[in-house]
Amino acid sequence: MTTTTTSPPVHGGGGAWRLVRAELRRRASLKVSLAVVALFALMTVAAPLIGSLGGWGPEEFDKSAVDPYLGGLPIGPLGGVSAEHWLGVEPVTGRDLFARVVHGAQVSLLIAFAATAIVVLAGTTAGIAAGYFGGRTDTVLSRLMDLTMSFPSLIFMIAMMSVARDVDRILLMTLVIGLFGWPGLARVVRGQTLSLKHREYVDAARVGGSGPWRILARDILPGVAGPVIAYTTLMVPGMIATEAALSYLGVGVRPPTPSWGQMIAESVAYYDTDPLYFLVPSLCLFLTVLAFTLLGDALRDVLDPRGSRT
Amino acid sequence: MILYLGRRLLQVLGVLLAIAAVTFTIFYVLPSDPAAAACGKACSDERLEAIRAHMGLDRPVWSQFADFVTGVFTGRTMGTGQYALRCDFPCLGYSYENSENVWDLLVDRLPVSASLAAGAAVLWLALGLSAGVTAALRKDTLTDRALMVGAVAAASLPVYFTSVLLIHGLIRLTGLLPYPQYVPLTSDPLSWASNLLLPWVALAVLYAAMYARQSRGSMIESMAEPYIRTARAKGLPRRTVVVKHGLRAGMTPVLTLFGMDLGGLLAGAVITESLFGLPGVGRLFYGALSTGDQPVILGVTLLAAAFIVVANLAVDLLYAVVDPRVRY
Asked: DSSP characters for B33-82?
């Protein structure tokens, strides 16, 4: 529908990654966001290990840290921050906030990353197939994309999550979030593939006797990789926010399993009496989303200077 | 143009039908028995069967779906014998929970959600576009940097956090604004606006930030086009060049985004409405979920889907108005 002509980005072998590294050196904000992403990624991989540094498990009660006469508010300043509980404790239960935030990072980010992986796999495959094979394949896939995009996705996710009873909530949430994410990426990839498939080097490969699969793998896929990486990085914050929204509404991850959205939901009622309890998960959510946005911006500027912006 | 419109309207109908079918299948096939819920604990088998037959649950799913679709277009009679109930066009069935007509429920709640969405949209368009265009025209200056840093930060703020901050800062501490309660626009416009101001701001912050980023990008692109140079060379005042030539073409991508966001807003309102306690469609939906009230869930889903497709259609038609290069 848009009439802007997209001039596809230039990719020259390892050149793209050299550009990324140069860009990284140029932008200070990028270093900070990479560090934040690395930190939270580490939490995702090694949550039990990092969490155990504080000496408490995420679901372990500590009644001695809360005051039963004050409605279970944490004892001590700043929501019970002490040498024993580094970020304080949860009101009423006395569960260690540091342990919960670290394990919450694992749950939140695992869902976001896994859903992103589904989207990348499905979106790239569908996009390349639609763009390269064209014809009926394109018609069917494009209609499917339009249809999926017309779904009120959040409403649908909430409804599906609330109807399902005895299933692995984390797995289901990953699948449901992934299910509604792929058409956006597929459209970008389809557009990119369309512009690539009649380039000279692709024609040359075809004349040289390469079969369609070989062309797809060797010539098309590297060409769409840049936009996919940029788009994907910018997609992660949305995934994290969706997980948080579902858990906040009580249809996602359920207590005692921590996730950031679920922690925020529980702590909203205490924002006044125990601000730190509310601030810690909110701040984690904010930092992660911010870091991924900055990273995605930079990657897009380098890998996909003009394309894929609708 | 007429032909195009006709084709698109048919498409809209097809999409809505498909969405209804998928929703219907999911919620009616999954293991939950509304008849048992309606019957209560001390329920004999015969009575359960009777209720099933009354609700039409004893028939195959496709036949139930066909009934549902017929009901939407022509209205239908639900149940049999002395319990028969006439449900007029557009019939979305009756709530399992309180036997109210789903369409009436939706119509009742829609003004709240629509007020929330419309006010927030006006606010974020005004804020986002002015910030984005200002930044684009002053590209690479301090103003540009400051605006964009602000926009990235604001786009990353969780809506829960913004809302709590607003509620605490503007209601609890200063007492400047009332705690949001819905007052119909028609009865008292001033109090309608002052009550909804906080939810509007909470919702608009996130979108304004995204729109500032998007409109800056597309404005920079459109200002680099050759026709802008031509317009300048003709000696047109800068204001005319920016507004009539630059902005007009630069708005196409923003319009796309706006169509998608506006359509999705009804769904997004679930969270805002629950944070601020507003009795809109989002709350209705959330309540229906906890009780497994399938007709209401189906009704809200369809309404939200209708919003999305209609918003997209409206945007596609607007392209032709905004961008002189687009013709149907």
From this structure: -HHHHHH-SS--HHHHHHHHHHHTTTS-HHHHHHHHHHHHHH-EEES-GG
Helix pair B159-166, B189-223: axis angle to 10 deg: 140
The per-residue pLDDT of chain B, averaged, comes to 83
Cα(first)–Cα(last) distance of chain B, in Å?
A: 6
Q: Closest Cα to residue B214, out of B268, B155, B166?
A: B155
pLDDT digits (tens, 9 = 90+) for A241-262: 899 888 888 888 887 888 888 8
Q: What ipTM describes this predicted complex? A: 0.81
Q: Quick check: A155 and B285 CB within 8 A?
A: yes
Half-sphere CA count of A268, side-chain side, radius 13 A: 19
CB B82 within 8 A of CB B50: no
Taking CB atoms and an 8 Å cut-off, how many pairs form between chains A and B? 122
By the 8 A CB rule, do A253 and A268 touch? no
- Give the separation between CA B243 and CA B259, rounded to whole angstroms: 21
CB–CB contact A151 B221 (8 Å): no
B interface test, pick of A7, A150, A251, A280 with most B CB neighbours within 10 Å: A150
Give how far the C-alpha of residue A286 lies from the chain's centroid of Cα atoms, to the nearest Å: 13
Residue B211 CA to residue B131 CA, distance in Å, equals 9
A195 CA to centre of own chain: 28
Amino acid at A188: V
Q: Which two tokens stand for residue A149?
A: 């995009």
DSSP label of A5:
P
Question: How many residues appear in chain B?
Answer: 328
**In this predicted model, what pLDDT tens digit does every residue of B277-320 receive, in sequence order?**
889 898 898 888 877 788 888 888 888 888 888 888 888 888 87
Q: What is the DSSP string of A194-210?
A: HHHTTSHHHHHHHHTT-
CB nearest B301 (choices: A3, A156, A306): A156
Beta bridge partner(s), residue B86: B77
DSSP per-residue letters across A123-178: HHHHHHHHHHH-HHHHHHHHHHHHHHHHS-HHHHHHHHHHH--SS-HHHHHHHHHH
Predicted local confidence at residue A12, as pLDDT: 47
- Average pLDDT for residues A99-116, to the nearest whole number? 90
d(CA A95, CA A89): 5
Least confident of A66-80, B36-50, B175-189: B36-50
Where residue B36 falls among pLDDT bands split at 50, 70, 90? Answer: low
